[in-house]
Amino acid sequence: MQQAARSTIKAAATNDEAIVQVRGIDKTYGDIEALRNVDLEFSRGKLTTLLGPSGCGKTTLLKIIAGLVPATAGEIRVNGRVVTGPGPERAFVFQDFALMPWATVMRNVAFGLELRGVNAAERKRIATHYIEEVGLVGFEDKYPHELSGGMRQRVGIARAFSVNADVLLLDEPFSAVDEQNRRKFQEDLLRLVDLEKKTFIFVTHSIEEAVYVSDRIVLLSPRPGRISQIIDPKIDRSASPDDIRRDPGYLNTVEEIWDGLRHYVD
Amino acid sequence: MSSSLKLIDVTGADKAPVNIGQALGRLFEKVPALWTLASLALLFGAWEIAGLVPISIAFPTFTSTVAAFVEMVLDGTMGHAYFLTLQPLLLGVAVSAVLGIVLGILMGLSLKAEWLLAPVFIVLQAAPMAALVPLVTFIYGIGLTAKTLAVIMLALPVIVLNSYKAVRHVNPSLVAMCRSFQGTRLQQIMKIIIPDASPVIFAGLRLGIAAGFIGVMLAELLITPTGVGDLITYHRSIANYAHMYAAVASIIVVSTVTLAALQWFEIRFLRPEKRKR
Amino acid sequence: MTIFGFRVPMMASLIVWAILWEIVGRLDLIFLIPPMSSIIETGVHLVQTNSWQNASIITLRSFAIGMALAIGIGVPLGILMGRFKAVDNLMGLWVNMFVSAPLSALVPVLMILFGLGETTVVVTVFLFAVWIIVLDARAGVMQVPPSLIEMGRSYGANGWVLFSKIILLSALPEILAGIRIGLIRGVKGVVIGQILVSIVGYGELFELFSRSFEMESFWALTIILFAAAMLLSALIETFEKRIEYYAGAR
């Protein structure tokens, strides 16, 4: 028996140690129903991906969890407390990087700390650590326009790490990055997940990316967005990146998800 | 052997007759300043020829205009005129800048302020405010206040509207970023909205200064015969056309240089991301 | 106030200002500000007078001729600058200079060259409007996506066809934007020209009203002028939106 050829499919998501709980979330924009009755739990220390075709409300759900967008109905709990807005236990990584063009890499990375009133020396110490961790040593005094798309998103990730949140929310962080850098990024992300022991909630529309990085994949169906399937890929993460991508478990999971999504396309 | 020789011959023959146009083109490409020189020469040359013809008795040559300019600089009349003209201009622009940026940002941040003020400034910007310049003399006579007010009337609307639009078009993703890191509203305004809006605000400031120059000249020609405007009117009245043209040309040059200097200052000191390293 | 739409309810605040004006006018604080109601009343009479109608015709004529010249010369020049580097290099400096120069200072020169009459006003309108038209036409031509030109070439278009069917049409939104700003500047030009010349059109009327302290007439004329300027820019904006409808896909 192939050790990783199985994927477990569950009807509902439950876990003993849920750090983020999504309860009956509805979201409507005017007449458009973006999300309908979403119930989900995200386990501590795991990377969970929200995956679905465009228009399935995955980014909306992430922004509701972040407290950036109010839900029409339902509630979000993080560490048991109800979310009413952004909080220090969550950090967001933006699809378009959201870097301040007038600030250096150092100031951008330390911006979350700056807003909290952390003193300059401490800010610099923490930011330096995370700049090193995402591999941007030597670029501290550069401005965002001097960096490639991939490097810019590393700044965005370092900024999210530097506020020491429990939950990192990543909104299609690699979609504006070219394919080669994307792969490198995915590998780096796995390394960071391992290193930082944080909970990651990750939004993507790439099936391969989702299967490659996730402990659990939540498939959303479009219009209105609902949970259609939850998949736990059983893949040996200790293998080399190339081996993982050739792993039958990886390939089968990709195929399985595609089967689930195929009928939403056109 | 023969073929390679022929090849060399062919290329040599191609290069041999030095095409002056091509050579000149290459030279111009290497030294862009030459284009500026050619551009200046074109207008000044045309001016000189038109003055020599002359196309009108009231059209002095370029050289006589320059001579008149030098004469006025040397005898101090030019300096004195600018001393008088720049006072209301600086004062008016300073007032317009402070008031305009504050109002514009307020309109960008508050829907109520927008509703109340935006239409007024939209009308004022599209409308020919110059029509109102004669009015200020009724209240403020012909002194510095009247001139300053004329500058403000023309400069304020464009500064307000640009600041307002700048704030309205701030990158929403940056604002969301600031919120996600629990930035307060004040932090959001000071650390994100104002820095992100500042290029457009600066552009408005430049437009405002250009409008201020129009305003101060209008005031000096129309209501208060002082400064550079007086220089123009006076020399026109005694048919001293070279001096008149020199005064007109000087104010256009001064305004252009001022605007260029402001842009240089902005890029050099305020916008690190636009600077080339 | 911004629940329905955007523009219409926002402009409603002008009514608030008009009422405020009326109150200030009624209080008789300064003779400069007569009540809005009497201004409107005077305005209704004013538009029936011969002097206003004549002045309007002269003003419109100067404006139309000046604008026609500005568009007729500005657009081709801008296109030339966009297509030919040499023209751009030679003219760029002057166009950029004059687009923000205090042209009001130039009007006295025009007055001695073209006389104290309509011609000076026409030239003033032209000078106020032409530079921005040139700059926007130039920008429009330069922004034509290279892929669009390559597409045209690959289907065998070149020379005139390529220019008229692809480059010109692709640059149209920018050209129109330039003409819109040019028209607004032209209105300012016609007013500044007439006020400085002060013996033609609205300039003469403004001079007359302010000399004889007829504030109601002065404000009525101003409001008519402002309304006309706003109407003009609103009209072009609607026209422009139609053009942008297809330009949006670029």
TrEMBL record, chain A:
Q: Which keywords fit this entry according to its UniProt record?
A: ATP-binding, Nucleotide-binding, Transport
Its family remark reads: Belongs to the ABC transporter superfamily.
Q: Which CDD domains match?
A: ABC_NrtD_SsuB_transporters
Which Pfam families does the entry link to? ABC_tran (PF00005)
List the transmembrane segments: none
**Record's InterPro entries?**
AAA+_ATPase (IPR003593), ABC_transporter-like_ATP-bd (IPR003439), ABC_transporter-like_CS (IPR017871), ABC_transporter_ATP-bind (IPR050166), P-loop_NTPase (IPR027417)
Q: What is this protein called?
A: ABC transporter ATP-binding protein
Record bears the keyword Nucleus: no
Any one Gene Ontology molecular-function term assigned to this protein's record: ATP binding
ABC transporter domain location is 20-247
Protein species of origin: Mesorhizobium zhangyense
TrEMBL record, chain B:
InterPro entries (UniProt xref): MetI-like, MetI-like_sf
Q: Which domain of life is it from?
A: Bacteria
Q: List the transmembrane segments.
A: 33-55, 62-83, 89-109, 116-142, 148-167, 200-223, 243-267
Q: Which UniProt keywords apply?
A: Cell membrane, Membrane, Transmembrane, Transmembrane helix, Transport
**Any one of the GO BP annotations:** transmembrane transport
Annotated membrane topology is: Multi-pass membrane protein
Which Gene3D superfamilies does this entry report, sorted A to Z?
Answer: MetI-like
Q: Where is the ABC transmembrane type-1 domain?
A: 82-263
On whether Transmembrane helix is a keyword of this UniProt record, the answer is: yes
Q: Main subcellular localization, coarse class?
A: membrane
Annotated compartments: Cell membrane
Its cellular-component GO annotations read: plasma membrane
| Presence of keyword Iron | no
Which family does this protein fall into?
Belongs to the binding-protein-dependent transport system permease family.
Q: Which PANTHER family does the record match to this protein?
A: ABC TRANSPORTER PERMEASE PROTEIN MJ0413-RELATED (PTHR30151:SF0), ALKANE SULFONATE ABC TRANSPORTER-RELATED, MEMBRANE SUBUNIT (PTHR30151)
What is the recorded name of this protein? ABC transporter permease subunit
Q: Which species expresses this protein natively?
A: Mesorhizobium zhangyense
Automatic annotation (TrEMBL), chain C:
Transmembrane regions listed in the UniProt entry: 12-37, 57-81, 93-114, 120-139, 160-183, 218-236
Q: Cite a single GO BP annotation.
A: transmembrane transport
Organism domain of life: Bacteria
- The ABC transmembrane type-1 domain, residue ranges: 56-236
Q: Where is this protein chiefly located?
A: membrane
Q: List, alphabetically, the CDD domains matched.
A: TM_PBP2 (cd06261)
Q: Give the membrane topology.
A: Multi-pass membrane protein
Supply the alphabetized keyword list: Cell membrane, Membrane, Transmembrane, Transmembrane helix, Transport
Q: Where in the cell is it found?
A: Cell membrane
Any GO CC annotation of this UniProt entry:
plasma membrane
Q: Which SUPFAM superfamilies match?
A: MetI-like
Q: Name the PANTHER family for this protein.
A: ABC TRANSPORTER PERMEASE PROTEIN MJ0413-RELATED (PTHR30151:SF0), ALKANE SULFONATE ABC TRANSPORTER-RELATED, MEMBRANE SUBUNIT (PTHR30151)
Name the protein family.
Belongs to the binding-protein-dependent transport system permease family.
For this entry, the protein name equals: ABC transporter permease subunit
Q: Which organism is it from?
A: Mesorhizobium zhangyense
